[in-house]
TrEMBL record:
Signal peptide: none annotated. GO terms for biological process: asparagine metabolic process. Transmembrane segments: none annotated. CDD domains: L-asparaginase_II. The active site is at T13, T93. This is L-asparagine amidohydrolase. Residues 217-326 form the Asparaginase/glutaminase C-terminal domain.
Length: 329
């Protein structure tokens, strides 16, 4: 019997259209529905039985906590069923790494979950969506894909949701894992694994979203020369933000103007995690900053640190305990 894969569509360029085969910009993302995406890849039916669901149809730059929660709940429900062997999510590439990491922390199954998308719209003469979708299903049906955490497949690369990031605005080869490399690659539908990522994921995290209707509010601020974003930090806090991620300079440094304001807000229970605006490498905090309660985001980029901080705040708001989560997940 062929493996059964659920494909959950959320929108993005893979479902994008424009009325020119040459155009690779200026299109409308999230214009086609799941049936049209599947019709473009009839070859998938040769090796898998597919069941499709439309979760949303948006440009992923407007992704929301609500859609991510719905997606995770739907995946958990599907993967409990014996007859479902794996899940593929089609997603816009702009925030794919955020949803992928969210699922990596909240899906409670070791069956494969694979995200894919496209850099060129479905109407383009060089559309990459169909091959990416074919590869994603090939990966989701592969026995070796179990218990690897959530994966991203783009341009034949297999990447971990924990480490992958979008590194090019327009190129087809837009996803990399700067410090840790690819998990493997797919060639003519054959899956080749080379690496694993040791960080805990899926069934081995404490984050259970099944009964959550919303998530704690966490925002991101950048650090830069002559930084005036302390005003924004105060405004966000007054507006209900419980956690902030700072995209610090270098190895996680914060402009003194900003830090003074953050220190005051932390005394009022704002939780602050420090990441870096640099694409690769670890954040290192001074003993003084650790003692003040700043959380080191390790190697997580700001947008992924935000995801982990939101989920951590569903468990507690103790910065020492949250720091432990950042070391493990
Ligand atoms: C989006 O993220 O929805 C648009 C961009 C893309 O999918 O490449």
């Amino acid at each position: 019997m062929k493996p059964k894969i659920a494909i959950l569509a959320t929108g993005g360029t893979i479902a994008g259209t424009i009325d020119s085969a040459i155009a690779t910009t200026g299109y409308k993302a999230g214009a086609l529905n799941i049936e049209v995406l599947l019709d473009a890849v009839p070859q998938i039916k040769e090796f898998a039985t597919i069941i499709g669901y439309q979760i949303s149809n948006i440009d992923s730059s407007s992704m929301s906590n609500e859609i991510q929660l719905n997606l995770a709940k739907k995946i958990n429900k599907l993967l409990i069923e014996d007859e479902i062997d794996g899940v593929v999510v089609t997603h816009g590439t702009d925030t794919m790494e955020e949803s992928a990491y969210f699922l990596n922390l909240t899906v409670k199954s070791d069956k494969p979950v694979v995200l894919t998308g496209a850099m060129r719209p479905a109407t383009s003469m060089s559309a990459d969506g169909p091959k990416n979708l074919y590869n994603a299903v090939a990966l989701a049906t592969n026995e070796k894909s179990k218990n690897k955490g959530v994966m991203i497949v783009m341009n034949d690369r297999i990447l971990s949701a924990r480490t992958a990031t979008k590194t090019h605005t327009l190129n087809l080869d837009a996803f990399f894992s700067p410090d840790f490399g690819d998990l493997g690659y797919i060639l003519d539908g054959k899956v080749y694994f080379y690496n694993t990522i040791e960080k805990l994921h899926t069934k081995n995290t404490p984050f259970n979203i099944d009964n959550l209707e919303n998530l704690p509010k966490v925002d991101i601020l950048y650090s830069y020369s002559d930084d005036g974003s302390g005003i924004a930090a105060k405004a966000l806090f007054d507006n209900g933000t419980q956690g902030l991620v700072i995209a610090g300079s270098g190895s996680g440094n914060i402009h003194q103007n900003q830090k003074n304001i953050l220190k005051d807000l932390m005394k009022k229970n704002l939780i602050v995690a420090v990441s870096s605006r640099i694409q690769a490498g670890q954040v290192v905090l001074s003993k003084e900053d650790e003692d003040l309660g700043f959380i080191c985001a390790q190697d997580l980029n700001p947008q992924k640190a935000r995801i982990l901080l939101m989920l951590s705040l569903t468990k507690n708001n103790n910065s020492k305990k949250i720091q432990e989560y950042f070391k493990i997940y």
